[in-house]
Fold this sequence. Notes:
Elements: H1 9-20, E1 29-38, E2 41-47, E3 50-55, H2 67-70, E4 76-83, E5 91-94, H3 96-112, E6 116-125, E7 128-133, E8 136-141, E9 158-167, E10 172-176, H4 178-193, E11 201-210, E12 213-218, E13 221-226, E14 247-256, E15 261-265, H5 273-277, E16 286-294, E17 298-304, E18 307-312, H6 323-326, E19 332-341, E20 346-350, H7 352-356
Parallel strand pairs: 3-5
Antiparallel strand pairs: 1-2, 1-4, 2-3, 4-5, 6-7, 6-9, 7-8, 9-10, 11-12, 11-14, 12-13, 14-15, 16-17, 16-19, 17-18, 19-20
Amino acid sequence: MQTEELISKEEFEKMLQDSYTYKLNVADVVKGVIVKKEKDGYLVDIGAKQEAFLPNREITNFAEQNPDDIVKLWEEKEFYVMKDEEDDEIATLSLKKLSCAQAWAKLSEIKNENANAMAKVISSVKGGLIAEVEGLRGFIPSSQLRTGAPIENQIGQEIEVKILEVDPKRNKLILSQRQVYTQQREMVADEIISRLAVDQVVEGEIVRIADFGAFVDIEGIDGLLPISEISWERIKHPSDVVSLGQKIEVKIIKIDEDLKRISLSLKRMGANPWDEIADKLKEGDIVKGTVNKITSFGVFINIYPGVEALLPSNEISDEHVNLNNMFTIGEEVEVLIKKFTPQEHRIGLSLKDKNED
């Protein structure tokens, strides 16, 4: 005779209860429906007759965002389990931890695929911009910006970026706008350059300024305007003449199709002062000029707008003299033209020969 094992009423009730509930563990991801708004958070129905609590502080990373704008009653979402049930306390959930984990994973995937992402510029800080991408905030260094225009002008804009570094453990996200531009530039550079020619006058916008020159956006590609091609007169820095965001007309003086580089000139948009003085001055003339620069070997003097001539030390005196004691920048002096070769952009001056006369 077969004996059947009977189940007690208590065991049956426990099995029935277990069928409606399950144990939550920290770091689990669960689905739930937001069913009630509380003073400092929301109650979430996670199924099987269980509720959990979503604190307001766990809804978003950004203090300026209103939790009510992110979650709505009766909306179903996925949540990260921060704290499991303990005694009479219900589990605690987090939206921001789940969204952060998902965002970091997505950004890592985007970086690995060398794809681009859209970011919204939030604010400017020392050395660059803060931008939000996939709900996370990253840093765009100034060196990685597409344009050198005032960065405050980009706040609130949606821009396309490359992801340079993703480090969730250090909460570090570094972005680049410039690399996107470089990628796009390479795609269109050949077509644009094929339409340009040396001596052609083009209009562009100053997008970056460096000590050695300025970069001008010409139809989507950057051309270099060297400091030596900005003005016929000596300038200390490109920003003395041009400014970020400025629209200017420049002349193309060189095209390197292999390297896809364009060299530009601003000073050649006007008359060449060296050509102008060819028939106005000659050797032996005494002229007035302004001291522009003092060096150990001589003094550079501006004798005509855009024309600088050299007064060598040995043409000042037969004796050793301290040039800094004799001359000051901006001082007006009278000198004699000793050597005159404007076609080579060279003029030699003399003070002692002028004094002998």
